[in-house]
Fold these 2 entries.
Entry 1:
Amino acid sequence: MLKIHDLYAGYGKSEVLQGVSLEVPEGKIVTLIGANGAGKTTTLKALCGQLKCRGSISFQGQETNGLAPHDIVDLGITMIPEGRQLFPFLSVKDNLLMGAYRKKARPVVAERLEEVLELFPRVRERLDQFAGSLSGGEQQMVAIARGMMACPKLLLFDEPSLGLSPLLVEQMFDVVRRVTEQGITVLLVEQNVFHTLRLADYGYVLENGSIVLSGTGEELLGNPHVRRAYLGH
Ligand SMILES: Nc1ncnc2c1ncn2[C@@H]1O[C@H](COP(=O)(O)OP(=O)(O)OP(=O)(O)O)[C@@H](O)[C@H]1O
Ligand SMILES: [Mg+2]
């Protein structure tokens, strides 16, 4: 579904991504893991058109490198950014409605809201509250729900478990799994390597802007380098 080939991107003179190639097959959960500063968020930004890059990004056979961010959203790629980035002084409901700006999502917004709320009962209970008044975990769920409002084909997650308590981390991974049951493909960036590799069909390890290893979640969990560098044993 998504194929990145030999991607270079950076900020000013500093080149962060140095020839990243990876694939995300339709219907799968693929994860990108790596240390702080490895270039994970940079990769996602490049995919969303938020950052100029060299190389090829093809989505369902169409080259997307060079397209504007809103055109990429219209093709069906939605990012759930790190740190949630909700509008704190809008209600939860209005935050969700803002997620439906993709052309394809607009005509079905009421039905879509119902479908999404089925998945997030806690969010339904809080529809009229200011988004900024929710707990961190609840806000993360709203951010995911907002991403789903766009009826995406591919959801990009940037560290959804950041700052959540262990119980909420479990719930969040469960939500990611249920997202894929709705036919949405997932590219998941996470520091919570153990949970992520258990969930993912396939994973890539990014170090200093290059992919150094890849394999099924199970293979990477058993890999000595991954165990030493990311799992602490
Ligand atoms: N807007 C920016 N301007 C300049 N340099 C940046 C900018 N954003 C990121 N960088 C640099 O690019 C490198 C990769 O950053 P990136 O955010 O992609 O890392 P990451 O893998 O997502 O890390 P983390 O796990 O900490 O989120 C870092 O060295 C960072 O300092
Ligand atoms: Mg990051």
Entry 2:
Amino acid sequence: MSKTLHIIGGGMAGSEAAWQAAQQGITVVIHEMRPKVGTFAHRTGHLAEMVCSNSFRSDDHESNAVGLLHWEMRAANGLIMEQAAVHRLPAGGALAVDRDPFAQSVTARIMAHPLISVSYEEITELPTDGHWIIATGPLTSGALAQNIRAATGADALAFFDAIAPIVY
Ligand SMILES: Cc1cc2nc3c(=O)[nH]c(=O)nc-3n(C[C@H](O)[C@H](O)[C@H](O)COP(=O)(O)OP(=O)(O)OC[C@H]3O[C@@H](n4cnc5c(N)ncnc54)[C@H](O)[C@@H]3O)c2cc1C
């Protein structure tokens, strides 16, 4: 069995997972379908593109659960929080970032890591061996979503979201 960790999806979750594993000395391959295959919300081929609000919500780690999560991600030397600090925008007590330079910087950091490579391809089947993380988010491509649904049961899939529309 391969000792490489494969991650499907190079969004914020997949990028952070890749970073954390690689920092532990594990070889990682991120399989990201963009820019070859797009979604209705993503606009670029960058990793960690924010398709939602540019806010990571409250940064108050003493009285807000989201802020506490930020604190924990910083304590774990997380890549997303590192680059959020670099590209932070004024937003009161919230942690908001300049989304395009943020995604570009996360992509550059991932690309520069000696243990991480990125394979630009859509994964359509659920892997049957090896070590995999599926981090394809709410816009998982159709074929993979169908296979996840078949394996787990349609009623088992749910996605909860805050409403923050983007106006282009
Ligand atoms: C229109 C919209 C608005 C949103 N607004 C908010 C908001 O305001 N606040 C909030 O907290 N959340 C919001 N969300 C949810 C938001 O998507 C998540 O917060 C965040 O992006 C999740 O990160 P992720 O890494 O899980 O998924 P993503 O950032 O979507 O990353 C998943 C990656 O997987 C890739 N991928 C998908 N399928 C495949 C495949 N088969 N093979 C290879 N690669 C694949 C995609 O290209 C993408 O890069 C919104 C989502 C949408 C769609």
